[in-house]
User: Fold these one by one.
Assistant:
Number 1:
Amino acid sequence: MVYAIIWFAILVCVYIGTYLLNRHTKKPDDCKTDFTACQGCANIACGHYKEGEMK
Amino acid sequence: MKLFGLFIALTFVNNVVLSKFYAICPLMGLSKNPKNALNMGIAVIFVIFLSSIITWLLYYYVLVPLKITYMDLITFILVIASLVQFLEMFLKKTSPDIYKSMGVYLPLITTNCAVLGVALDNITANYNLIEAAVAGIAVPLGFLIVIYIFATIRQRLEIADVPTSFKGAPIALITAGIMACAIMGIAGVV
């Protein structure tokens, strides 16, 4: 049980770490996302979703 | 020869989309344009191959020794989500061209149940590492083939004379059903 809790905590920390690293990594210059591909997707947690909504 | 049989079986006969009905969400959502479908398929190959190997290693070298194999589902979900975030960051830094072509498709893969399905199937089928790696290529390749063919059919359906009540999702689902029937025709090959 203790191992399971520690393992779960490690996984959550890894996810948060990779999420923050990804969020703070700049996109390449002249990179424009094609938002027409987002039409069929309802993943509101996606970073591109908010970006497309703003535009 | 066994690996080749496994490859063919997982790509065509036990196609992840048409026989197990995983990944229907991206199939329906991203199949309006063949180019988008192709990009999504390539991104899925990339992620499933890596996640298949990583989840297999974690299961047999962490979960089994610690006797916490009941944590497999939550482990695989978090590993896949982390892997997608890491890959996106890695591509932003090292390969802007690949990032430009895959950018929007990578976060979508987190919600693609085929990725989780392959990771879990590798364990339940008792595959070794090599077989898991072969499954990690064969399954997404099957997905790529189906989503691309489906996208080209849907493009033709846009200009076809379809009854009003069948337009859009209904005719797309009927098409997917007919494709599933067609792929059953090669069930005896392997």
Number 2:
Amino acid sequence: MFKSHLISMLVFSGIVSTIIAFIRHDDKAKIKKEGIKLFLYMSIGIIAGSWIINFL
Amino acid sequence: MRPYLIFLLSWLIPGSGHFIHKKYTKALVFFSGILLLVILGIIMEGKFFLPYTETSNNYGVVQRQFHPLLILGFLGDLGLGLFNVIVNLLGFAKGNIESVTYHYGTTYLVSAGLLNYLVALNAFDLARKGGRNNV
């Protein structure tokens, strides 16, 4: 399972974004929103960054 | 409880500072999340940073060279508190450079330590404010 870099990155993003969302907010709705936002930022940012690096 | 004591306790055991302030959901998330990162880091054959590299000269004398980047990694791993001690005592997280997931595992471990610093600081802040806004 963890031989895949993509899955390793997604699992990492999921755990880290959940913890940071819980640190930053107290309200459950805000935690959920922040968690999803952070997860998407991290995942999409890393995929886009690695795609750009591919051309260097 | 004094904020600095809460910080120390939260650093030693992730989530314990929030548990004391009756924020049980947060305490559970922090403890299980950081523990999960550590377990996955070990499974991926990552390693804990040492603040130095060891080289032996022509006479077989081992020399330790300290490096700023290694020291930063070491400080990151140190953030795991008791988890760091337990994992070291059990002999895990020695790292296998030949493993495909070695770098990911090392990143998981150091990130867990850095996140625990944030969690401990949050607990410290909570103790200073008196534990309002319970989840």
Number 3:
Amino acid sequence: MDSALIPRGVKRCPTWQFALWIGAAGAVLLWGVFAMLLCWFKGLNQTNMNDSYGFALWIWADLAVIALGGGAFFTGFLRYIVGKDELKNIINYAVLIGFICYSSALLILAIDIGQPLRGWFIFWHANVHSMLTEVAFCLTCYFGVLTIEYVPLILENRQIDKVPFFHRLGHNMHEIMAVFAATGAFLSFFHQGSLGGVSGVLFGRPFGYREGIFIWPWTFFLYTWSAAACGPCFTIMITKITEKVTGKRLVKQNVIELLAKISGWMIGTYIIAKIIDTWYWAKVTAPAAGFNLMDFYSNNPFYGIWILVLEIVICGVVPAIILTSEKGRKNPAALMTAIILAVLGACVNRWVMVLQVMAVPVLTFENWVMYYPSWQEVATTILPVAYGVILISLSYRYLPIFPQEQELNPEV
Amino acid sequence: MFPFCFEWMWDMSHMVFMGGLWYALTIIGLGMTFCIGKAFYDTFFDKGKDDNHH
């Protein structure tokens, strides 16, 4: 029925099967939309946020998808600025994943601000002393850049490409994509950093507070670094999942291995910096505020020292060792393990820097404050996943996302 | 956001923040203007129809 829209030389599942798949994802999406409307119409009392948790599940999800969406800016930087030509075979997918991540982040923020009709205030009445203002600026601009990077892909659809204006527009956009990629890298550096800076400047929250250089706490640089390191792993992970679901090879192994190698070295250097940062914080910064390391990891039902070991050793050191060794990258099971651990590491890092910061007692008469999200928060956090599945499915079906697909699946 | 907004001040914070924002928006705006303008020009004068970026 829709065969005229499907790229030439590739095979896609029957329309009924595709419709069923989209319907299943659409049902989850509708559940999230229902919860979203509850939050908008009834207010933030639909959540379990309170005076202790001004930041909660949404902000964790926001920071996590922004970190994982960092694969788009870093792969774009490597492809267009550094000149790693092999990455042209995965850059389309990295852009699509980045587009989904950033649009999801903006959607979550639109729910989180409670009154989305006043969302434009952050631009018009900008508080120029707030790191979150800079985040809002860069996030929105970078979403614009990702849209510009995604549009040429849409214009490459078989039917759209037949329109002379769209064909030329797509070509022109490709010609100057390096300019947009450089702008994207510039914007990403600052908003990833400023998100880290938010917890780093909280001098009233010793768990998150860090020293730094000029106005930037060390977390500013660590966030940018970790996003550039773990973002490409998320791109690889989603690529592998897509290959599994479609039953096809979509990207050549040398491309995956190159991206994994670069990611591995980035994770390795990041985790060294993270270990130094954690050691200095535990030995100097926190004691100066009257805290010992174990004050942050004891006397509560959830946050033990295990979470620090999980973040730094299991999800940091281990993937770095696997991905920097050729043997590790060539072993599919080891590669996949490392990729998943790196993605998990970025998520755990964002979790502790958003939620554990809030949970830790600061004053002597305070206790640990635990938080359990409401179903509305969970549903609106799953909403972007369903949206991502739908957009990836539509893009995979109708757009030439994977340039190597035809070559890798010659029997089609 | 603009110098005519009542809370605007000509201080370093506004110049750095807003300068960065307008710098990025200018690049994006000029880039897209070039792409769309050239696409119109090429279409009108029937140029570049064989261009392929694959």
Number 4:
Amino acid sequence: MDTIIFILLCSCFLAMWHGKRKAAGLLLVLTFVAVILLFNHHATDALEISL
Amino acid sequence: MRSLRVNLAQFCILAITGVLIAAFGVQFGAGELPCPLCMLQRMGMILAAFGPAWLLMRAMRGPIDARDYAQCYGISVLAAIVGGAVSVRQTLLHIAPGDPGFGEPVMGLHLYTWGIVIFASVCIVSGIQLLMLPKNSERLHIGIRAKCVLFLFAAVITVNTVAVFALEGFHWVIPDDPTSYRLFGDAP
């Protein structure tokens, strides 16, 4: 999942560099959603350990 | 005022790139492998730097207006909120008295505590940039220095991608306390 997010970040940078606004915006939204989902996964994991 | 806006955008990218390079120093120099929450904070920092980076890239293609500034610094603020939440979460995991924390402290603070400082600074700098919005669209001069900053930032993202792939291997997530690069063989 981390690798996928970093690939999304690279793609987003490339889309910005080539001036593809819609593609960059879509990739940014996808990246934000993926980061929040991954954070939710790890936060729940840590909560289970502490409980 | 125009040059101040460009310089501030470059400074934001350069500062975050510097922090990410320092994190590489800890990872490859001191041999401390990043935990999943550390990696999430790196993602938050890269997303926070995407705001000013996109602003410079838009300015290279033509005039930019207040909407462009607002969109770009809006990305930075959102990224700082997400990244800051991760930093706060990790700090709270190690806040109990007697807990040594994760990794070695740098200048008295652990890296995740520095993360809170960095994400708060991103919010402050983005707020300052949003206070200086231009009334009309303007053409910014993007010189070789800004392009070098963007290339350095791109290089750091690329190296991070390779490093995280080496760390994660073909698994879904990074382990809570990584001890080896899983791409080159799992630890027994």
